[in-house]
Amino acid sequence: MTAVEDAEVRLATQIIPKKESFKYLGSVIQGSGDIDDDVTHRIEVAWMKWRLASGVLCDKKIPPKLKGKFYRVVVRPALLYGAECWPVKNSHVQKMHVAEMRMLRWMCGHTRSDKIRNEAIREKVGVASVVDKLRKARLRWFGHVRRRSREAGERRCEGLAIEGTRKGRGRPKKFWGEVIR
């Protein structure tokens, strides 16, 4: 451990306890640099928004395309908030995909036992895959980062968003630049 890790943080006479994770501007920041908690939190928030909008999303009188448009405007932004700078793993993408498909199936009044393909559900409500939207958001952010001026910072896109060492067992952590490549 370094002296920085052992340091106490005080506010007047009160010692502030060290946390492994905290919430900042709607995102969960973990000390280890992982995004597992943030992905889980985003899925929970999306379900919360979905429940609030379920009166519209589950109404059989409303056309599926209109429900899909409502979903894209209300629920999906809650799911993908801050995702453009996540160093995602396939397991994170899979979690978001599963949550989205459960919501879309529920909107259409179908269950998995109805054996309707995901593509057919997406076509019915006119919603693109969360995987595609995640990729699009990352590439849009990458464009912003590439266009920024040199004075904005010395570091370019290679190690953006996640700092740390690459020591330990198993596969090394993915950095944001590697996800973009």
The largest β sheet comes out as:
2 strands, antiparallel
Low-confidence stretches: 154-166
Taken in chain order, the helices and strands follow as: HEEEEHHHHHHH
Tell me how many strands there are.
4
Structural class: mainly alpha
Termini separation comes to 33 Å
Number of domains: 1
Mean pLDDT: 82
How large is the share of residues in beta strands?
A: 5-15%
Gyration radius, to the nearest Å?
20 Å
Q: Which percent bin holds the helix content?
A: 40-55%
Protein name: Reverse transcriptase
Organism: Solanum commersonii (Commerson's wild potato)
Structural commentary:
This is Reverse transcriptase. It comes from Solanum commersonii (Commerson's wild potato). With 181 residues, this protein is mainly α. The chain contains eight helices and four strands, in the order αββββααααααα. Helix 2 (36-52) runs antiparallel to helix 4 (64-80). The longest helix is centred in the middle third of the chain and has 19 residues, at 90-108.
Q: Can you give keywords for this protein?
A:
globular, Reverse transcriptase, 181 residues, two-stranded antiparallel ribbon, 8 helices, mainly alpha
Please outline the helices and strands.
Layout: H1 3-6, E1 9-11, E2 14-16, E3 21-24, E4 27-30, H2 36-52, H3 54-57, H4 64-80, H5 90-108, H6 118-125, H7 130-147, H8 176-180
Helix pairs in contact: 2-4, 2-5, 4-5, 5-6
Summed up:
The protein has 181 residues and is mostly helical. The protein is built from eight helices and four strands. Helix 4 runs antiparallel to helix 5.
